[in-house]
């Protein structure tokens, strides 16, 4: 029988809670087929369940452990992630607890040679980046799940086997009270980089595993430094390698450093090794002798790998179970949330009979494409941070030396921060619209740009689990009629009229937003009659200079793969 650890994990700042194992009804003979079973209650699995609940989809969420993650793990979350987390109702708690920031600094031989500034303007509700330890993040998500009656989160439930059928999958689950089987229309594997589901299905990833190893050490220390990324290249105490530092909430700092070739994880994590290296790093930044206390440490390797297809019959992969990405550029959880936000609406539409199963192929198409693009970008950063060959090291070292005096080489330090992918070639984008005729605005496949509408009022605040038509100006009668027909078919669909100051509510619209200054029109390249069709995951899938009802209905049908 599966026996998870029920001793609270150690932390000097986080109070671990043991979540109770509750006897599953299947152990007492219940036979029930579930729409979706999610394996793994980490950040991606929890958000997938919460996202599916927005569409009314019931899920079981299986987690082999009985407490949240060991250590801080993922700590840096992007603006796009916060916009997704706003949709599932936990962004406010993260904003209250996290440390927002937007600058990154690269140092060589005691000199700052590059300063990255992430874009930020008045249209952004959230900062470009925010730091918060993963334990708190998961706690907030677990609290939200507990309030959601459509989600059954089962702690201490370990998946032993996956049996795939033509129209379902059966999971064999081991618990402290014995084994049971559960059948689901769909299984979503979000069980991380060491995915047991992926192993059970015999699937392998494509890509590269880099030789270099890194230590993550979280320490409690009082440093009067701003919340900014600090990267140190070729420091005297770690020649040829790289060191990163990040401030975390609750007086914690992360020190992340590359190991010399050939050093084992056991050697690296010894008390003497950790103390010597952390003290050397603190001395290098002028903080020698300051007392510190270790909370958590680990060793990791940089990987750039992905499955070729995220849909394997009735089993769908998301997050680290689907791909393993270098952490440089904060790509792990941030990419995983984009995965599940893409998947949730499509899987919900399939479960409710609103879209055919083939729409799930677009999930794999879009997110495998995103992973490959991220791998290409991340590999450039990884090769700079950890040169894999003598030739790359020569090039990196030449860049470092030149950067002390030559401005033109300094942008090579840019760490290519995680960004939302644009599904420019998605099969769900309309091919019969006016996309190519626009002089500006958002292209088909792009994520929405937020707009500040008032003192504490932003465009994305008004959006939920639905398709949206943004229509600039009064709504033509046939467009309004088409909208009603789409809604009557069961597809969640709303028309949003964007009107100039003083125009009042627009007839035929579900919601009217006032563009008091014309800024909304300018940012979207719009004039009277312009329209945008927005998918439930807030990506554009069609746009028109002028719209009629037939073109709208055709675009919606294409967007649901009909």
Notable characteristics:
562 residues; alpha/beta; FAD/NAD(P)-binding domain; Glutaredoxin; 8-stranded mixed sheet; 26 strands; globular
Q: What's a concise summary of this model?
A:
27% of the residues lie in helices and 27% in strands. It is of the alpha/beta class. Strands 1, 2, 8, 9, 10, 11, 17 and 18 form an 8-stranded mixed sheet that branches. An 8-stranded mixed sheet has the order 6-5-13-14-15-12-16-19, sandwiched between helices.
Can you tell me about this structure?
This protein is of the alpha/beta class and 562 residues long. 27% of the residues lie in helices and 27% in strands. It has 13 helices and 26 strands. Strands 1, 2, 8, 9, 10, 11, 17 and 18 form an eight-stranded mixed beta sheet that branches. An eight-stranded mixed beta sheet has the order 6-5-13-14-15-12-16-19, with helices on both faces. A hairpin with a 2-residue loop joins strand 20 and strand 21 (457-458). Helix 1 packs parallel to helix 4 (134-146) and helix 2 (79-87) packs parallel to helix 8 (332-351). The longest helix is centred in the middle third of the chain and has 27 residues, at 359-385.
């Amino acid at each position: 029988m599966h026996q998870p650890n029920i001793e609270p994990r150690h932390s000097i700042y986080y109070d671990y809670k043991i979540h109770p194992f509750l006897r599953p009804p299947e152990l007492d003979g219940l036979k029930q087929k579930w729409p979706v079973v999610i394996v793994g209650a980490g950040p991606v699995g929890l958000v997938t369940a919460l996202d599916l609940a927005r569409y009314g989809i019931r899920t079981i969420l299986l987690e082999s452990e009985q407490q949240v993650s060991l250590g801080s793990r993922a700590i840096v979350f992007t603006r796009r992630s916060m916009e997704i987390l706003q949709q599932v109702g936990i962004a406010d708690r993260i904003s209250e607890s996290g440390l927002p920031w937007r600058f990154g600094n690269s140092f060589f031989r005691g000199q700052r040679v590059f300063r990255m500034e992430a874009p930020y303007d008045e249209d952004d509700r959230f900062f470009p980046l925010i730091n918060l330890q993963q334990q708190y993040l998961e706690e907030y998500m677990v609290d939200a799940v507990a309030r959601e009656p459509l989600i059954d989160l089962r702690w201490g439930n370990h998946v032993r086997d996956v049996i795939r059928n033509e129209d379902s999958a059966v999971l064999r689950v081991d618990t402290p009270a014995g084994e049971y089987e559960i059948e689901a229309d769909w299984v979503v594997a979000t069980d991380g980089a060491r995915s047991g589901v992926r192993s059970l299905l015999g699937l392998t990833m494509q890509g590269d595993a880099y030789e270099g190893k890194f230590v993550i050490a979280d320490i409690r220390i009082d440093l009067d430094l701003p919340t900014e990324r600090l990267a140190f290249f070729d420091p005297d105490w770690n020649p040829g390698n790289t060191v990163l530092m990040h401030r975390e909430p609750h007086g914690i700092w992360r020190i992340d450093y590359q190991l010399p070739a050939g050093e084992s994880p056991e050697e690296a994590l010894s008390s003497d090794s950790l103390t010597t290296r952390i003290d050397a790093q603190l001395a290098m930044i002028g903080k020698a002798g300051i007392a510190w206390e270790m909370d958590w440490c680990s060793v990791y390797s940089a990987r750039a790998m992905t499955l070729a297809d995220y849909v394997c019959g009735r089993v769908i992969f998301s997050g680290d179970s689907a791909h393993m990405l270098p952490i440089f550029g904060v790509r792990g959880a941030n990419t995983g949330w984009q995965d599940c936000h893409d998947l949730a609406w499509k899987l919900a539409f399939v479960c409710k009979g609103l879209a055919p199963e083939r729409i799930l192929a677009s999930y794999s198409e879009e997110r495998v494409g995103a992973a490959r693009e991220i791998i290409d970008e991340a590999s450039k950063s990884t090769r700079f941070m950890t040169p894999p060959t003598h030739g790359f090291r020569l090039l990196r070292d030449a860049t470092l030396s030149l950067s002390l005096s030559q401005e033109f080489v300094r942008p090579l330090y840019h760490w290519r921060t995680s960004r939302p992918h644009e599904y420019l070639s998605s099969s769900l984008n309309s091919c019969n619209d006016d996309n190519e005729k626009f002089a500006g605005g958002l292209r088909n496949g792009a994520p929405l740009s937020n707009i500040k509408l008032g003192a504490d009022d932003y465009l994305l605040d008004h959006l939920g689990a639905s398709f949206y038509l943004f229509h600039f100006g009064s709504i033509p009668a046939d467009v309004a009629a088409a909208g009603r027909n789409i809604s009557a078919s069961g597809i969640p669909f709303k028309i949003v009229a964007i009107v100039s100051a003083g125009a009042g509510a627009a007839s035929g619209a579900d919601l009217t937003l006032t563009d008091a200054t014309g800024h909304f029109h300018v940012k979207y390249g719009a004039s009277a009659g312009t329209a945008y069709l927005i998918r439930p995951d807030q990506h554009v899938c069609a746009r028109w200079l002028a719209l009629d009802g037939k073109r709208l209905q055709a675009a919606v049908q294409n967007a649901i793969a009909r």
